Structure formats: C-alpha cells, structure tokens
Amino acid sequence: MPTDTANSTSQIFKDCGIRDIAKLTHHRSAALQLGGFKGLSESENNALTDHKLDKHHSAYGPVCVAKTCKVMAGFDIDDAYFVPRSMIELPNAVHWYVRKLLPNYDKWKSEAASVHGDKSTFCAMFLNDLLPWLVEVIVQDGCYFIKDFPDHVISKLLRMNIPAYDRFALQSR
Amino acid sequence: MQQTVRRVTGGHGNPGADPRKGLKDIFPAKDKERIMDHIYRHRKDWAAAAMNFTWGHNGAVRGDSNRKLTYSDVNMSYGFGPEEEGPLARCLLLVLRKGVKNKDRHDSDKQVGCWRHKSYKQCSVFATAVTIIHYLSTSDVKFEHRNKGERAPWWEIPLIDWSEYSGTNVIFAILFRCSASALTTLLVSYFC
Does pLDDT of A63 surpass 50? Predict the structure, then answer.
C-alpha cells in the first residue's frame, strides 16, 4: 500500500476510534477473510483477486470458516447456531461484574495507561474487550456450573463476589 | 520376519500390540461430557486440563502447541462470530505462532477460532474464561511494559501451566530432559 494511502487509512481508522492494528492492513485481505469465512471456495474467493491459487493458499486463506466454527461448537452443518446460555441477560452492566470478580481491574487499566504501562493494541483489546466478554461468559455459563459443580473454586468465586448470584442463576436456568 | 507379519496382518510393526491400536475414531459426545465432568469435579489441574481438552477437540490444536501458548496468543475478533453485529459477533481466537515454536512450523502466524459450544462443559470459550479469570483473580499481574525493546512480562504468562498439567515439577522435568540427553550422548559415543 503506498504511504499516502496507508497514512490516509490510518488517519481514517484513528478518527473512527478503531484501534486494532490488525485492521490497518490491506483492505483486500479483509475482503478475502470475509469471503472465506462465509464459505466461498478458494476458487470463488480467488475470483476477487485473480492471484495465483498458491498465493491464496499461502496468504489469503480465511482464519475461520463459519461452517467449521458451527460444527465444532456441537451443531450439524444445517442447524441454526443457537446457544441459549448466551441469551441470558445480566441484571447489571458487564463492567459491574468485571469489578466484582476482578477487584484490580481499574488498577490494571491505570497501570496500562501509566508512563511504564503496556500501550499495545493487544493490551487494550485484552483489558477493554476480552476480559469483559470472558466475565460475561462466566456469569452466564456459571448459572449451570454452580449447579453441577457447587464445590468448585469458580462456583465459590461467583457466589462470594456476586451478591445473590444463586438466585440469579436459579432464575436464569 | 516382522515385515512379513506386517504384510500379512497389516497395521504397525508390533505384532503383539492391541489390534485396535492406532485406529482412528470419533469421541462420542457423552464421553466428552463425562471427561469434562471429571476434569471440573476431580482434577486439581482443572484449568490446564480443560483448556487442553476443549481446544484440542474444538480447534484441533496440537497438544504440543497448546502447551506453548501464552497470554499474548489469545485474541478476540468482532468479525468472525456467529452474527455480524451485537454480542454474538465475538469470536475467541488462539494465535499459533510461526516457526519452530509449534510443531506444524507455519511460515506465518495462524489463528484458530471457536464459537461458544452448545454444551458449556465442552466449551473452549468457557474453559478459557475460567482459566484466565481464575488466574487473574489469584495472581499479581502487572500490565506494564517498561522495556519496549523486549516483550512485556505479562505477555509471557503461560496459558496452560504445563508443570501443573503434567503433574511434574518444571525443574525436575528440565533436569530429566538434560540427563536423558546426556545419557543418549554417552550411549552414542560408547557404541559408535
């Protein structure tokens, strides 16, 4: 990508609040990732670039394929993907649960923003996106986990740190 | 003689081995549930075992690669999820680094992604969540990067604590490997 285009793209991404450096690479790669993810075959995807197929194999194969992800999540190819646990609505905002389960969360964010902090896009993703999602998953799946494994350290963590978690879990199951 | 036996009976070279040895099969779902149930109910190394088992079965990640993963190899996408928008747009990914670090020896970094499994016990996302949240809630992690010329220390935290998973002490394992290697060298030099 010519420097001007790269600079322009970087500026546009920055202005739109998109921090993830991975998205700052070629737009073409993103298009091919989408095509492959949705199930376009290599030759179908290759119609977009007209590259030799070996280039496709080495550089443009999709990271994930939706059909593969669905099957590996326990569904048949023709099934609709539906995981009822992921629909459990949390009574409080996700960050409320994050602070309950990870009391140092705000300290970590301050640490990352400090002079010696980790200012990588990876750290930002980890603290701002991944951790809240993982906490959401634990709180949702935990509704079943505490019933099946009441003595597990994770069940104790959920019960001790989240007020009335047993009642919430019982109502959500 | 052994080659004759192999030609007649097929299979591998050990005629006394179980005739089903080496044959491939699919794990029945109920067995996976039973194993995960056992891991969460009885294993002290539940976090490492759950990560290893679920990512192996759902992402086909080699055990060798699994055990070399660190925190910097965890990634999340808002594009590869089951839906295009909203909470279900998220997908958890593991990064398999290029080079000799992984047995497959990719020439570029690769990723493997998983959606939430229909059974929470078999779910790689849940296993990853409990592993990371449990670790962070019991450890003193610092999100610092003082020396920009080196990798930040917290990036190197093992995702799977191999010493815990294998039930061996790391120092013992290293000593064992060193002594095994020294013994091999000794035997080679003695016989050759």
Answer: yes
Cβ distance A81 to B115 less than 8 Å, yes or no, reads yes
The answer to whether A123 contacts chain B (CB < 8 Å) is yes
- Residue-level length of chain B: 192
Select the more confidently predicted residue: A164 or A37: A164
Are the C-beta atoms of residues B93 and B181 closer than 8 Å to each other? Answer: no
Q: Residue A142, Cβ neighbours under 10 Å: how many?
A: 30
B135-181 pLDDT, tens per residue?
999 999 999 999 999 999 999 999 987 676 665 544 444 444 434 44
pLDDT tens for A118-159 read 999 999 999 999 999 999 999 999 999 999 999 999 999 999
Portion 141-180 of B in contact with A at CB < 8 A: 141-146, 152, 154-155
| Residue B106 contacts A, CB cutoff 8 Å | no
Q: What is the mean pLDDT of residues A17-42?
A: 72
- Could you give the CA distance from residue A136 to residue A133 in angstroms, rounded to a whole number? 5
For residue B111, the chain A residue with the least C-alpha distance is: A63
Evaluate whether B36 touches B42 at the Cβ level (below 8 Å): no
Q: Which of A126, A129, A158 to mutate to test the interface with B (most CBs of B within 10 A)?
A: A126
Note the ipTM here: 0.84
Among B118, B105, B119, B123, smallest CA distance to B55 is for B123
- C-alpha angle B43/A98/A74, rounded to 5°? 55
As beta bridge partners, residue B158 has: B70
Distance CA A66, CA B107 (A): 24
Contact check, Cβ <8 Å, B75/A125? yes
- CB-defined contacts A:B, below 8 A: 147
The DSSP output letter for A90 is P
d(CA A18, CA A25): 13
